Structures are given as C-alpha cells and as structure tokens.
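User: Sequence recovery, please. Input:
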C-alpha cells in the first residue's frame, strides 16, 4: 500500500475552510483538535484535509512548519483507517482540519498517537 498525501487531498478552498469552522463538529485529543464536516467538494477524493498551527502559539514560521510536517506525516501514515472511495458512495465526502493547540513541540510519537486516536473517533462517529 502506498502512503501518499496527494494535492487533491489537501484542503485549500477558502470557502470550504470558512464553512468548516462555522458548521463543523470538533474532537479534541491534546494537543490536537480535529474539526470536521460532511459536505460536497470538487475533489475526486473522499476526504480533504488541512493542518493548522496558530501563530499565537509559535511566532516563528520554522516552528509552525515543523509541527505541520509532524501532523501531516502522522495523518499520511494512518489515513488508511478511514474509508476510501471504493468503500463508500461519492455523496459522503468530508473535510478535516487538524489544529495544534499548545505552544510546545511534542515528540512525533505523541503526535502520532493523538492523530490515531482522533482518526478512530471520527471513523466511529461519522463513517458508520
């Protein structure tokens, strides 16, 4: 199995992001929060995902980018836990946003555990 995170899987639409924060539901698993919404989008992929690290927690872009890389990598390796287009109809598309909620950089193993925990929660609640 290829563990990839292609361009079509990335959440880039400003309209979708705004709608996600207004209408979306949230799960928290310290230090990461997941905001998700079932909605239609133009991508061929079932799920579009974004990663955010607030500037108020990390002033330097280098630090924000490092944390985003950690979260992206953990998601990329474990996204196979979620259904793909072959398992579910095209009408049940989702958008996700992972938000880092603390001002310290935790080790990758901790980030991976929390991402895994959030993916299991979302699978149980939204994809059943």
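Assistant: Recovered sequence (128 residues):
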């Amino acid at each position: 199995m290829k563990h990839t995170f292609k361009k079509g899987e990335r959440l880039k639409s400003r309209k979708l992001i705004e709608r996600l924060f207004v209408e979306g539901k949230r799960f928290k698993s310290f230090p990461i929060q997941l905001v998700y919404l079932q909605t239609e989008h133009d991508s061929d992929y079932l799920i579009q995902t974004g990663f955010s690290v607030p500037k108020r927690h990390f002033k330097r872009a280098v630090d924000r980018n490092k944390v985003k890389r950690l979260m992206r990598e953990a998601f990329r390796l474990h996204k196979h836990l979620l259904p793909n287009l072959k398992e579910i109809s095209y009408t049940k598309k989702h958008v996700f946003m992972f938000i880092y909620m603390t001002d310290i950089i935790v080790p990758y193993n901790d980030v991976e555990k929390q991402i895994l925990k959030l993916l299991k929660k979302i699978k149980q609640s939204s994809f059943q």
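Residues 7-126 form a domain with the Ribosomal Protein S5; domain 2 fold (CATH 3.30.230.10).
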